[in-house]
Amino acid sequence: MLTREGLLKTPIRHIDFTQHNVVPLVDAMRDMAFSARDLARAADIAERMTRDPECGIILCLAGSLISAGLKKVFADAVRFNMVDAIVSTGANIVDQDFFEALGFRHYVGEEKLRSGMFDAELRELHIDRIYDTLIDEDQLRICDDTVRQIADSLEPRPYSSREFIRAMGEYLQTHGVKSDCSIVYEAYKNDVPIFVPAFSDCSAGFGLVAHQHARGDAPKVTIDSAKDFYELTQLKIQNPVTGLFMVGGGVPKNFAQDIVVAADILGHEVPMHKYAVQVTVADVRDGALSSSTLKEASSWGKVDLAYEQMVYSEATLAVPLLLGYVYHKGAWKGRAARRWNRKLEPVGVA
Amino acid sequence: MLTREGLLKTPIRHIDFTQHNVVPLVDAMRDMAFSARDLARAADIAERMTRDPECGIILCLAGSLISAGLKKVFADAVRFNMVDAIVSTGANIVDQDFFEALGFRHYVGEEKLRSGMFDAELRELHIDRIYDTLIDEDQLRICDDTVRQIADSLEPRPYSSREFIRAMGEYLQTHGVKSDCSIVYEAYKNDVPIFVPAFSDCSAGFGLVAHQHARGDAPKVTIDSAKDFYELTQLKIQNPVTGLFMVGGGVPKNFAQDIVVAADILGHEVPMHKYAVQVTVADVRDGALSSSTLKEASSWGKVDLAYEQMVYSEATLAVPLLLGYVYHKGAWKGRAARRWNRKLEPVGVA
Amino acid sequence: MLTREGLLKTPIRHIDFTQHNVVPLVDAMRDMAFSARDLARAADIAERMTRDPECGIILCLAGSLISAGLKKVFADAVRFNMVDAIVSTGANIVDQDFFEALGFRHYVGEEKLRSGMFDAELRELHIDRIYDTLIDEDQLRICDDTVRQIADSLEPRPYSSREFIRAMGEYLQTHGVKSDCSIVYEAYKNDVPIFVPAFSDCSAGFGLVAHQHARGDAPKVTIDSAKDFYELTQLKIQNPVTGLFMVGGGVPKNFAQDIVVAADILGHEVPMHKYAVQVTVADVRDGALSSSTLKEASSWGKVDLAYEQMVYSEATLAVPLLLGYVYHKGAWKGRAARRWNRKLEPVGVA
Amino acid sequence: MLTREGLLKTPIRHIDFTQHNVVPLVDAMRDMAFSARDLARAADIAERMTRDPECGIILCLAGSLISAGLKKVFADAVRFNMVDAIVSTGANIVDQDFFEALGFRHYVGEEKLRSGMFDAELRELHIDRIYDTLIDEDQLRICDDTVRQIADSLEPRPYSSREFIRAMGEYLQTHGVKSDCSIVYEAYKNDVPIFVPAFSDCSAGFGLVAHQHARGDAPKVTIDSAKDFYELTQLKIQNPVTGLFMVGGGVPKNFAQDIVVAADILGHEVPMHKYAVQVTVADVRDGALSSSTLKEASSWGKVDLAYEQMVYSEATLAVPLLLGYVYHKGAWKGRAARRWNRKLEPVGVA
């Protein structure tokens, strides 16, 4: 019989790219074929972004990446100044990273659970499943409620998701980070903006709905997704050379690509994203955005053709190799921190 | 040499499920194997939703479905009272459906364009590509600008995307629909709410950014994605028995599933979604939400296990068969229209 | 508890394309996008093959297609003279079609069996599983043994798989076909050759191993796969205009494509395959042959570029639409039967 | 303009797992999720096979693996006694490994060639394309012809593919290996049998067709695929504990799994394959064998459930990690060489 104790036993451990010098391995893949060659070329492009002193780097995250053990990879990318902004789905940032920063963990689920045969039992036990990974639903409710408390504490007005997530970083600063690393907190400390364009579509949504419900007709916090778009576009206008490092597709991919067009609409001619890398297993033949090639994005005037590379791989295999390569090549050591949150405060807050 | 005239010649034609009685074909698939059997079972579940007098039906749309020729399928699903609410990505609703309602069209791209070798040329010609389909970028800019005009015309305050899309339907009512059918307009006439949780992540975003930029510090229209979540949750509370018909995954899938939990957080114990069908080609093994099984969703307490079915197929093949089956079985004839927009007005507008 | 009676209850029913006039449906897909448009174009090419009086049509089969309910589709394609030769994996021809011709059936497996959680139980019950379909292992052993009997009855010498499968058709003629249709038997009656290049990799292999083992050092039946290749190449030389209709990839796809080169090596300059259609879900990015594009095949001088189309779909959905379209367009009515087995007898047997 | 010189410039380089100690990296993946965790578990199982003194290890290869830069990985697996038999598609063994042993190379194709837009030009230049990799067709014809010469030199009778491939190893021994490593040659030296169940479906087929054509009615070399099956089954009977390391699916996967049943048919009760690992990107939902789970194989009595693991990854990424892990763990150092070719000679030749 399944029990909570038996199920929530082995926590997910986050891989640490500083511990694995993958440069020789990735270099050895350069003149192979298929995904290995693509991965090596993508690593080159990612590394080139960090060496380009003019380039602002935007990290896009979709899929359950943090619960899968990639938290430290992205937190370290922020810490080592390899990333200037993040655009993500809500789950990665709130349900998973902020959740762990509150002291909770994700757990390794045994193989048989993937069959789906035990999901009714898991529900009874208040355990949520992400493919092969388990979460304590009761802890997730605490995470939802923490978002509500943060919303309650803010001045009622429309916020970009970036502003709200910055407030979540501040909350961690005040209340303590109960995890050895956190993307939200690392981004807060380094003034790296995090955008979640569909912010109510995650644990934050539950907290915000509770907040708005409690406020009734009184003034309340609202989340203005147009403001997100406006802010990210401002960054593109102020820092025209940009590179995208995308894991998965979905809203973050589309949103970050679109700022080139948005800048144009605001009357600023900016170049397309100069560099673009995407790691995905999505199949191009369904015509969906997640799988659309970066070449296709260039027909839209969004991504330049010179330095773009798709890598066809599940993220847990490819991302440690890619960002580990960039880390160990060391070009980030000379990069100027952009601290874009500071640039946005006049836009976002004042 | 590619020319605009040569490229924008053959418009996409939308399939009309009323013209194809697929019931015998789908019935013949029931005792086959693999996707055929799954499709027949999904058709049964979809049909069962329409026969269940208590069930409110939520249609979720992700991927480039309207540009692919499925507009009339979904517009007719609204017209024939087979759907009570829609949750979608922005592209389907604004860039594609509303765009066509303004009198513009999508175009069949020749096969060689898929290679990506002509994307730089397409950009020069102001033509955007979605895999095998072409769009006149100049017309898309008119669509963006129409959204801006609508925003300019509205009272400055936070809106749910649903409220804004309703205003888009009203715009079509006033200015005329220049297409033989439109989801936005059909939904407007039938009081069917449309939610786009990442509303700024599409043509609407461009219009809203322009609106907000022009307003500067003056009061402006904002898009409150939390309000979307609140409204859809209210519908679940008022109409506890629900079914999901999902095409693709992404934000719409997650958002619609989540309202079960949101209702709980607001203190209302509601049943899980009783019926759920998803058409997708996403692969379960990357652990992402788009591909997560509906069984997995039941561990989260979101989807019931009795009537759920995934169909592994690209949407243009499976959706006409599925919704055509429901149409020709005719159970919608006796369905009471829910006209949920009317229920939401006190929440959303008053 | 699972029982044999409970599991082996609902037989797979084979779809009958003569009963479903899909022409209007496929025509409606022609100006859609993605798989629908590709399918319509593939249907056009498949239909064009049957209208071309010079074209010999080779059907290639990989994947568990017969057990999935497509037996009658392919048997009727032979019966209605829409196909001149078949290249297949062994499972389709021996384990599945010949098996059913012996009076056995495939069975619908309940959904939960796909989880893999019951496979140990199935093994105990002598039931084999193909994803969602079940087979009585004891009946399969009878099929193996029938192959052995046929081998025992033949003059000991090297045979092409085609010769052996023709002997299987003769066996059915003599002993009676215990199924309403059979590819092996229909091909036998119409002198349509069937090639299985990896003939020992299926139920036939078990029968042949038993035969060879019993014979010991005495003369025995052997299966010469080079002879298969030689024979199919002869057909290409004698009938230079050819079209391929491929379901799945694997050995049959490669084998049939290669005869263009083999003819060249034998000193005959023959044209590439003029028409080629493939239905598959394999992903091009792993570089494997099954998923390789038909354009790639043209770099090898195997497939012409003018009339080739990949259709990205699981076979049970796409194949009835494609071959149903060809059937209902009716061009096969005027086709001359090629009766290629008669051409091969001097090569194969004398 | 494309030229042969420009295209055939950068040879594929084969990754060398002895140079990359991936043990810490793979260990760090063990408590992550998705493919990373699966890969670590598969590495454990692969390593366990080499530590089990009773276990004979069968390597199964499908897909264009050698041309992709994995030749040295598999040749070293033979050299370091990590593998006791190989079952493969013909392309890997003949067109790619033997081809390189004759002194030829595969070449890195520029990115734009993948578009398929240049395949007609490539054909004119006698250059064959495998996705992103190029081959000199004229050199491939020399490879075909070398197979013909070997066939001409052999006593006319039915051969298993294993016997023929052993003769190819002998040819390399006599004429010299013009490559720094070769699977065929390494296997020859170490008495490791290589089986190619669809042996005529590759460059060997061209050579054999030419041989048989030249011989006309005179005695000739034939390839008996049933003998392959018989021989591999004998090995299972003599060494009942076995493990499968499978890259891709197709005929090699099915063939190697089937020997458990074949042994039973010959009256020997042998255990199922005790260990099984498969690396693939094939999708389980099309029901085909390549993607069928190893659990499904256990319903057929072929693979044990205790130690089986699928890894969802393109091979060039996963295989160096998996076999590199096994190499650096070092358990192969104590393994007894099985030299199975010596056991088969009485069966195969005498």
In short:
The structure is a homotetramer of 350-residue chains. In chain A, 49% of the residues lie in helices and 14% in strands.
Word description of this protein:
- The structure is a homotetramer of 350-residue chains.
- Chain A has a single domain (15-335), classed as Deoxyhypusine synthase (Deoxyhypusine Synthase), CATH 3.40.910.
- Chain A contains 15 helices and eleven strands.
- Chain A has helices at residues 4-7, 23-29, 34-51, 66-79, 90-101, 119-124, 137-153, 161-175, 183-189, 203-215, 225-238, 250-265, 294-299, 315-329, 340-348; strands at 56-61, 85-88, 107-108, 127-130, 133-136, 158-159, 194-195, 222-223, 242-247, 273-280, 303-312.
- A six-stranded parallel sheet of chain A has the order 7-2-1-9-10-11, sandwiched between helices. In chain A, strands 3-5-4 form a three-stranded antiparallel sheet.
- In chain A, helix 12 links the parallel strand 9 and strand 10.
- Chain A is globular.
- The model of chain A has no long low-confidence stretch (mean pLDDT 96).
- Chains A and C meet through loops of A and loops of C.
